[in-house]
Amino acid sequence: MQREVARATPPGGGAVRRRLSGRVLLPALALLVMVAVIFYLQPRAMSYTGMRLVLRYSLPLMFAAMAQLCIIAASDIDLGLGAYIGLVNSLSALLLAERPVLGVVSLVACVLAYAAMGAFIEARRLPSIVVTLGASFVWLGLALLVLPTPGGSSPAWLTTLVGLRPPYVPLPIVAGVLLAVVGHWLFMRSSYGVVLRGIGSTPQAVQRAGWSLLTARSVLYGLAGVFGLLAGLVLTGVNTTGDANFGAPYTLLSIAAVIVGGGEFFGGVVAPVGAVIGAFIMLLTGSLLSFMNVSTDWQLSVQGAILILVLGTRALQRRRA
Amino acid sequence: MTRRWLDANPWIWSLLGAVLVWGLTVASVEGRGGIETLSTALGFATFYVIVGIGQMLVISAGPGNIDLSIPSVMMLAGYLAMGVMHAEDSGLALGVLVALGVGLGAGIANVVLIRGLKIPPMIATLAAGFVMQSMTIAYSRGSTAKPAPLLLQFSLARVAEIPVIAILFLLVAGGVAFALARSTFGRSVLAIGQNARAAYLAGVPIRRTMAAVYIISSLLASVAGLLLAAYSGGASLNMAEDFLLMSIAVVVLGGTSIAGGQATVTGVWTASLFLYLIVTMLNVLGVSAGLRYVITGLIIIGVLAVSKGRKTA
Predict the structure, then answer these.
(1) Architecture of the A55-316 domain
(2) Inter-chain contact A295–B138, Cβ cutoff 8 Å?
(3) Nearest by Cα to A282 from A265, A269, A300, A296
(4) One-character DSSP codes across A194-231
(5) Which of A74, A121, B82, B312 is 20 to 30 A (C-alpha) from A198?
(6) Chain A CB contacts of B136 below 8 Å
(7) Residue ranges per domain, chain A?
């Protein structure tokens, strides 16, 4: 986890970068505090195995957060992501082990459908919130058609993959750092990343610079489809089974992770490193509650409270500035 | 001329859709049960209408305004109201008060988060919804969730095949339509939705109007929760599942502009009937739940694409 904080505060240079690292600083500190409290309450969580257990479900959530980040970068919002993850979960559990070719084809089709949704939203200038909500019915319906009752199994390679035990650092942390690096490079360092964030802030400028908005939004939604696909796959690996409804919580959790991690709803302001940190924060609320002997019924409340706290603080800061 | 009339009355499309779907449904069972189908649809559609009116007011108040806490308010209001009623008529008044209290509290909470803490409405209502959802989950353990007999009768009552709640909310819808067209409050909502800055400069009380809009939405959601819990014979944790999408879908399909500033109450009613009749038709045709979801989703997206394409918003 320290590694992430190190990544979160890149050294020096440039007003923009300073502001972005400031964006990530708050969630990084919040995460450190949470981890400290958890270790204090339950010292056994400090071990390799302890962290593995505590962070078990962080894999699907961090990929879901990165998927949502792609959409939020376009100043859109995806209210169907959870259902989509449920669809990938169902498809992969039913097909990947038994009929791998059909499985791969269907999953590729899922990603293409996401990219097409982006193109559709751009071409018809539709509000993303309604389209993705409508699409959530489509994903859920397809998942129920594929897998009417929970079942299926995870292919062996997937189970092995999510069960990997890298030396010294547990898999979720390694994966988190890798994902943060990839996301950071994609959005903050690559030249096309500027275009991708640009359509969320000043689409006219992007268009006048000669870039196709249609392509950019399709790429963003396609990327969201890819990250959502990864989320669904690791969910299958972790649960070793499929369920059309497993994905449902990830819609709201992924939005929360992106926002808590420093993203803004408008203006293409996103922080991939922060989103991964946000995913860990949202996930650890559960462990925190159970170590404090509070019923996990209240986990949603704590997650809601964290959202309010972070956004309230940010608004106060802005007013003062 | 016709075109202008159509643009001014965008609800006509969802009404046509509703009539078409109803016709197909009745035709598919050889003309039997047309009235019953319509009567049931009126009853069910009323729940979409109740939350739809609130969502419509919120959405009309301008870009970015949306109430995502509606299903959570419904759940919490439904559960708490059923909980204090203990399935007895003597608890009816208290139950109704509790439900309305939940609505009022939720509305105020949303307003405080949005106006006070300056949190974007989408995330504010989402976070408030999180909190209410977990309160419901915690409360639902070991609570009885049956309605008072009187409330149950009321929610199912019919006058000449027309559900009483449908009549009631036809009147409410009429009142809201009148308020939007004629009252200072209604004009203020639309003015803010068209241009908040201009409305502010013109002296429209933004703070008060926005607060009222969100509180009305939560109050309506709590009433919907109360009635739905009674209608389905008890509150359940998944009873409000579809209402997030439906509350938004009926508003947008009805012809209210998602960019705000223009609303149609008639559209909320016609779109609610349309969407519920689609579900009925698919049920009559014996379509599986999965396919029903797929078709509903595609129709919502499709209608949205067509109607948005007609007038360049």
Answers:
(1) Orthogonal Bundle (1.10)
(2) yes
(3) A300
(4) HHHHHHHH-HHHHHHTT--HHHHHHHHHHHHHHHHHHH
(5) B312
(6) none
(7) 55-316
Closest CA to A64 of A216, A277, A279, A237: A279
CATH of the domain at B52: 1.10.3470
By CB atoms closer than 10 A (0-12, 13-18, 19+), residue B90 is exposed
Q: Across the interface, do B120 and A308 touch by the CB < 8 Å criterion?
A: no
Domain of B240, in residue numbers: 10-310
Our count of domains for chain B comes to 1
Give the tens place of pLDDT for each residue, B150-178: 888 888 888 888 888 888 999 999 999 99
Q: Residues B101-157: pLDDT tens digits?
A: 999 999 999 999 998 888 888 888 988 998 998 888 888 876 667 888 888 888 888
Q: Letter for the amino acid at A109? A: A
B252 at the A interface (CB within 8 A)? yes
Structure token digits, residue B206: 């933004």
pTM, two decimals, is: 0.87
Q: Over 90: is that where the pLDDT of A268 sits?
A: no
The verdict on a CB contact (< 8 Å) between A308 and B288 is: no
CA atoms within 13 A on the CB side of B294: 13
